[in-house]
Specification:
74% of the residues lie in helices and 2% in strands. The chain has 301 residues and is an all-alpha fold.
């Protein structure tokens, strides 16, 4: 290996190390680049995460004017386009991302979709109906599942469709866990505006954290939709091979447990937490249960 090649190799190695460190330093609802993922794929997963996490942070910098945040996202997209052309500059995230895109033939459109979601976060605070919220999920969550399927060489039409259902369900579930945080920190409400109006709920009720029967009815409508999406996508977790399938089963059973806790909660503004017993049960279910068991659990929620 000549001196220039050694330099380039070390640059890529250092870039992946940076992305892995970033992924491990942030709390997320579900594991990122965990040991369940084959070692060779932890690095591209971390690069994808670093790209998305950084862009998400730009969108959520609430103290900056919307124009400034949108400009940062525009710069991020320019760096992405350069990376897709093989020009990564000196940013470690894009050095790693460029290597991942080239190695695994990752579609540029999926990264553009993610940036579309982050722009929506800057300019859109409320959604008129559930269709609008689901469209947001198409840009914010579904690309991540699709990218993982591409990394694993499993991106068939049926699996991509099932992945979209699971990813949208997880995004919607996250919205219901973060009603208070989304509103207090960014003024966002990810609940269908038309259904809020039908039930006599307005923004002031969210601000005051009202939790009466109308709010509970609204929450249960969203939980029913999440349940349907999980059931549509869950078979994918038993179709995918090895550790990828196991990690997806862990994620889906974990989401199902959170779904149950939200359904039983008296206060919809408190984020449910999984206990040690929950984690043990989820692990057992992921190793030994079938889609039939999962569907029964979802139905009970």
């Amino acid at each position: 290996m000549n001196r220039l090649a050694r330099h380039d190799h070390q640059l890529v190695e250092d870039a992946y190390s940076y992305c892995l460190s970033l992924a491990r330093s942030h709390y997320e609802n579900f594991p990122v680049a965990s040991r369940l993922i084959p070692a060779a794929l932890r690095r591209p997963v971390a690069a994808i995460y670093a790209f998305a996490r950084s862009a998400d942070d730009f969108a959520d910098e609430g103290k900056l004017a919307a124009e400034v945040r949108l400009a940062k996202l525009a710069t991020w997209e320019e760096k992405l386009q350069q990376a897709c052309l093989g020009e990564h500059g000196d940013d470690p995230i894009f050095i790693a991302l460029q290597d991942s895109i080239a190695t695994y033939s990752l579609p540029n459109s999926l990264f553009i979709d993610l940036l579309t979601a982050f722009r929506m976060d800057v300019i859109k605070k409320h959604y008129e109906d559930f269709t609008g919220i689901l469209d947001y999920c198409r840009f914010s969550a579904n690309p991540i599942g699709r990218l993982l399927l591409h990394l694993y060489g499993q991106a068939t039409e049926d699996k991509l469709r099932q992945s979209d259902a699971v990813c949208s369900a997880l995004q919607l579930l996250n919205f219901l866990q973060d009603i208070r945080q989304d509103y207090q920190e960014n003024g966002r409400i990810y609940l269908p505006g038309d259904e809020m109006a039908q039930l006599g709920i307005n923004e002031q009720d969210i601000a005051r954290e009202c939790s009466g029967s109308a709010m509970k009815k609204l929450i249960h409508r969203q939980l029913a939709r999440i349940s349907t999406l999980l059931q549509q996508g869950a078979p994918l977790a038993w179709q995918l091979p090895g550790r990828l399938g196991l990690e997806l089963r862990l994620t889906i059973f974990g989401a199902t447990r959170i779904l149950q806790k939200l359904a039983a909660a008296s206060n919809p503004y408190t984020r449910p937490r999984l206990s040690r017993t929950d984690y043990l049960r989820i692990s057992w279910q992921s190793l030994f249960s079938s889609t039939t068991t999962l569907n029964k659990l979802i139905t009970r929620a």
